[in-house]
Amino acid sequence: MHPVDAAPSIAVELDGVVKRFGALEALRGIHGRILPGCLTGLVGPDGAGKTTLMRLMAGLMAPTAGHITVAGLDSVRDSTALSDNIGYMPQRFGLYEDLSVLENLRLYAELRGLERRTHRDTFERLLEFTRLGPFTTRLAGKLSGGMKQKLGLACALMATPKVLLLDEPGVGVDPVSRQDLWRMVQALTDDGMAVVWATAYLDEAERCAAVFLLNEGQLKFAGAPSELTNRLKERSFRLLNYRRDRRELLSEVLELTSVSDGVIQGNAIRVVLRLDSQHEAVAAFAAQAGAELQPVTPRFEDAFVDLLGGGPGGISALAQKMAPVTLDGDNVVECRNLTRCFGAFTATDHVSFQVRKGEIFGLLGPNGAGKSTTFKMLCGLLRPTAGEARVVGLDLRVAGSQAKRQLGYMAQKFSLYGLLSVQQNLEFSAGVYGLEGALKRERIKEMVQTFQLGKYLGSAPDELPLGFKQRLALACALMHRPLVLFLDEPTSGVDPITRREFWTHINGLAHKGVTIMVTTHFMDEAEYCDRVALMYRAKLIALDTPDVLKARVTIIGDQEPTMEDAFIHLIQEVDAQDAASSMREAA
Amino acid sequence: MTLLSPRLRAQIIKELLSILRDRRARALLIGPPLMQLLIFSFAATLEVRHAAIAVYDRDGGRWSQELVAQVSAAAFVGSVTTMQSPEQLQAAIEQRQVLLAIDIPETFSRDVAAGRPAPLQVIVDGRRANSGQVALRYVESIAGNLGATIQAESSGNNDRVAVRHWFNPNLIYQWFIVPSLAGTLAMFTSLIVTALSIARERELGTFDQLLVSPTTPTEIIVAKAAPALVIGTTLGMLMVGAGVFAFGVPFTGSLGLLFLTMLLFILSIVGLGLMISSICATQQQAILGAFATGVPMILMSGFATPVENMPTVLQWVAEAIPLKHFLIIVQGTFVKTLPAAEVAAQAWPMALTALVTLSIATLLVRSRLQ
User: Fold this and answer.
1) Quick check: helix, strand or coil at residue A165?
2) Are A301 and A202 in contact (CB under 8 A)?
3) Alpha-carbon dihedral of residues B62, B64, B66, B67, nearest 10 degrees?
4) Contact check, Cβ <8 Å, A380/B204
5) If you count Cβ atoms within 10 Å of the first and of the last residue's Cβ in chain B, which end, N or C, has fewer?
6) A541 three-state secondary structure
7) Distance between CA B37 and CA B182 in Å, rounded?
């Protein structure tokens, strides 16, 4: 890439930026500086104000108050000149799916007003950079998620901008392509470009040189991620090698006053102590539980939770009210050679596994790997082309209403009826599962109390804070006391506190014997599972506990492998095998 | 014990709330159809008024003068110009000076007096086909009445008596259009409400939630049909009421029968709407689907053009269109006291359509489970 001219020493200056949409205050006075030659992460959960800030910096909107200076230009006054200096890639980059890769590039070059004779060189440079050279004639609609993002990036880089704004480029991209994107961004910052990378994944934040941490429109932290995580030094520990149920242990540890946060990580439990609290209490607890207490490197997510005042307690009021599940037989969910084809395309290819009672079972994989298809067959939404799926011993596609009462389902993005109030949503869910009369009233009351929904009963679900929306969705899925709970991407884009609360309930339910099936592309979430099934290209490529899967990765340096590392490693193994076998066939 | 199972009850309440809880949606449901009724009834009239007419009277006898006098006095005529030659008459049509020209042959009075068929030539400006046709009908009617008068006088037979508007002798356009609009607009509203219902849930992701619950496809269809049936029928009856009280259209038939057939009619449309909705992935597709089926149904129902004028194959197709049958019922019930047997003859095809469309919709919802 061409080095950017000796630029001013500040790429973006944010001066008291406020943005209101009606009554909603999306950004509440943001101050900060983004430096050239530096990858800056704009981090926060959904609804934190990331996209709004991006659009303000791109000059697409004017701030309600305050000023933004990008590459020395005012984002409102000089918005025309500004567009030559920035590249902006929105969440869904406006690629024309019916045009080829090259045609898309040409279109954006024309839109950017690039001179015709320079097209050829520019395209060559961008195609080499993005490694899209071999695919120039392919239609953009036929590209994978990762390749689409790379093409979007190429289009955004058309005019060699000084500031590059990327809005959640990692969404819908498999871990391998994500690595590629990181490499490309690295090359750009090395040339002196300022790159802003918005993300809801907190693990992505740790890779950035600087981080703006947003929550509910407020800037919670600005600086190097290590600066934030360092605050937790001497306060982060791990409990290992105990002989008790880890979920029980977690719920107890979270109830200690000295503990601010704790999560399950495979077989271990991560614990963060409150500021100014002594670690003796935890040490005593560990000794009592027969566990080993080990100091660990703090993670960005832990730091975020600590910044927000710590996680929720460890006891699920919901689970406490539920009676333990009694069920004959061990395998609650079972599938054998489950296969589903859509025309010539096989979405799920001979998948077999069993899930035990009270187990939390994760189905992991990149977009398009077949995990949704498998999931839908398990809960009876899709008919298998071959093989069979049984839940509680029943084949759901032929099973009647009685069998369906055994399962609960929480769809992605909490599918609630937006036109109905919270109370009406609860009534509907209870009614549709056949609850009536006193029992129905009692269950609704119980859910309202447990989840503190009382003050929102008359509001529409969309008016609720994200955390309450999630509680409502969970309440709707659980009112009929299912034996098996299906969760489809339950916490993507949710802030870490809400996610912890959610998992506290799920852990509690599992402890009572409810079987949990969960799909996720969130690698951290996989750590909460007892066992994880990894899907890749319609096949089940690995099935084991998170610890065993991580252990399969050869450790480089002293860094501990994450689930993502394990995932990439396993995928690469499969790809290598495929390449080898096709070589053999060719020979 | 209540009549409905709790599952069904919960769903019907949910559907009703989804349609009616939103104030804007509520207004959109009731406002536009009533407004359209007003606009179409007053503005989109097919009546011809103030027409310019030319007359070339070669006869000049008693009966030809009587005819000219009656035409001149007719309500639809603005001006009558007397022509002196066939060339002048031709020029008047060509230059759009007149809509219609009457050429009376020399033998007209003689033929009428003798009780023989008395032919007349009427030339209509084909460029203004619609109003020309209507004006022609009026002239035919006058000529026919004249024939009838003559008949009484001379006891001979006269086969010029062609057009007689029995039940609407003054051809008041609103008497025809208001009852038809009541059917057409109620149909469109029910079609769109149901076409959106499943597609909306699919878009929101709540449909999967519904499918994994213990509810059955039949319950889903019943729950979605019921509120649309109530709303569509209410709207239709409201417009029938507007026809009687606001437009003064005579209502001579049985209100009970009209109500029952209205229910049947809306039910068949609801089935169609649900069929469309169950194959659409988004609300946008559903709206397009509703228009793609709704507009041809209206065009082929006899609302705009008579069904008898269509090619035979299309007439068969029209038999499957509920609106065609309902228009016969609603028009008949208003002005000509349609007997119950006639109503029944039009009702059973609608019942059949309702049965077929609702069954297909249920099957389509079930097949989503594949």
Assistant:
1) strand
2) yes
3) 170
4) no
5) N
6) strand
7) 8
Q: Which residues of A touch B212 (CB under 8 A)?
A: 379-381, 404, 407, 409, 486
- Our CA dihedral for B288, B290, B293, B295, rounded to 10 degrees, sits at -90
Q: What is the spatial distance between Cα B30 and Cα A470, in angstroms, rounded to a whole number?
A: 35
Location of structure tokens 């955004």: A156
Tokens of A127: 């195609």
- The SS3 assignment for A234 reads coil
Using a CB-CB cut-off of 8 Å, the residues of chain B touching A434 are 5-7, 214
Residue B136 CA to residue A579 CA, distance in Å, equals 82
DSSP assignment of B77-101: EEEEEE-SSHHHHHHHHHTTS-SEE
- Cα–Cα distance, B37 to B177 (Å, whole number): 9
Residue pair A132/A142 in contact (Cβ under 8 Å)? The answer is no
Tens digit of each residue's pLDDT (9 = 90 or more) over B84-124: 888 888 888 888 888 888 888 888 888 878 777 777 788 87
Min Cα distance B169 → chain A (Å) is 51
Residue with tokens 């009462």: A405
Supply the ipTM of this predicted assembly.
0.73
User: For residues B81-115, b (16+ Cβ closer than 10 Å) or e, as one string?
Assistant: eebeeeeebeebbeeeebbbbbbbbeebbebbbeb
- How many Å apart are CA A463 and CA A469, to the nearest integer? 9
Amino acid at A193: M
User: Chain B partners of A399 at a C-beta cutoff of 8 Å?
Assistant: none
Q: Do A379 and B210 touch (CB under 8 A)?
A: no
Which neighbouring-strand residues pair with A362?
Answer: A518, A532
Q: Do B21 and A419 touch (CB under 8 A)?
A: yes
CB A215 within 8 A of CB A576: no
Contact call for residues A88 and A156 (beta carbons, < 8 A): yes
**pLDDT at A57 (0 to 100):** 92
Residue A139 DSSP symbol = B
Sorted by sequence, the CB contacts under 8 Å of residue A305 that are 6+ apart come out as A260, A261, A272, A311, A496, A497, A500
Buried b (16+ CB within 10 A) or exposed e, B283-314: bebbbebbeebbeebbebbbbeeebeebeeee
Angle at A286 between CA A281 and CA A291, to 5 degrees: 170
Which domains occur in chain B, in start order?
A: 6-43+173-367 (no CATH), 51-154 (3.40.1710.10)
Cα separations (Å) of A125 from A37, A101, A107, A131?
20, 14, 16, 10
Q: Can you list the domains of chain A with their CATH numbers?
A: 12-228 (3.40.50.300), 234-315 (3.30.70.100), 321-406+482-572 (3.40.50.300)
**What does the pLDDT average to over B281-286?**
88
- Please give the model's pTM, rounded to 2 decimal places: 0.76
Of B10, B22, B210, the CB nearest to A419: B22
* CA A561 vs CA A268, A547, A557, B246: distances in Å: 14, 10, 10, 79
DSSP 3-state of B279: helix
Q: A367 in the Ramachandran plot: left (φ > 0), alpha (ψ -120 to 50) or beta?
A: beta
Mean predicted confidence (pLDDT) in A350-366:
89
Interior/surface letters A184-201, b for 16+ CB within 10 angstroms, e for the rest: bbeebbeebbbbbbbbbb
Alpha helices in A387-495 (DSSP H): 401-404, 422-432, 437-450, 466-478
Q: How many CB atoms lie within 10 A of CB A362?
A: 24
Beta-bridge mates of residue A533? A363, A543
Q: Do B369 and A382 touch (CB under 8 A)?
A: yes
- Alpha-carbon distance values, A53 to A44, A86, A193, A409 (Å): 12, 14, 19, 35
d(CA A540, CA A335) in angstroms, rounded, equals 12
Task: State pLDDT tens for residues A419-430.
Answer: 889 999 999 999
Please indicate whether residue A5 or residue B259 has the higher confidence score (pLDDT). B259
